[in-house]
Amino acid sequence: MGTIYSKQERCHLAEINYSRALEINPQSSVILCHIGIVQHALKQTEKALKTFNVAIANNPKSPLCKFHRGSIYFALGRHAEALKELEELKEIVPKESLVYYLIGKVHKKLGNTDLALMHFSWATDLDPKGASSQIKEAFDPSIGRTTSSESPTSPAAEEFLADRRPGLQPEALNFGNLPDDSEDSF
């Protein structure tokens, strides 16, 4: 039910139902990750970070939790923490273009243009169809759009997925062939 409410953007009801699921399985990093996503959508950023911290403590290799925590750090301007999180994530999911794209955006914000270009290039190599226009926009916002607005919920995910997967919610990212969180299953 939490997933359905989340897809309907009824975040408060989603959080209630995810919390009920967490009562059944209190160690589930998957449920905690969904709660963190919903909390961030409700503009409860600090609460969401605490939730992601608990989820990652329960399962340190949870790629979705690490990605969302890194995205929040980026949105908050905590670029060093975002970069650390994303570099760890890159080791877990080395073929996920979205990770490289967000690392490129962090490096761009830090003024490391050469590292930004390198990571954007790797993102393009991993997903040639989805990355090219977003990477061009990262360096020249006037390309393709008249205004640039970064979403507080998941800036890189929404920009990157806009053309790549229309209608896909940031919480539904496909990190292909990830290890499942089987220890978290009911």
UniProtKB/TrEMBL annotation:
Bias type Low complexity, positions: 146-159
Single GO BP term: cell division
UniProt keyword terms in alphabetical order: Cell cycle, Cell division, TPR repeat
InterPro entries tied to this protein: TPR-like_helical_dom_sf (IPR011990), TPR_rpt (IPR019734)
PROSITE patterns: TPR
Residue segments, region Disordered: 139-163
Stretches forming TPR repeats: 29-62, 97-130
Family: Belongs to the APC3/CDC27 family.
Name the UniProt record assigns to this protein: Cell division cycle protein 27 homolog
Source organism of the structure: Tribolium castaneum
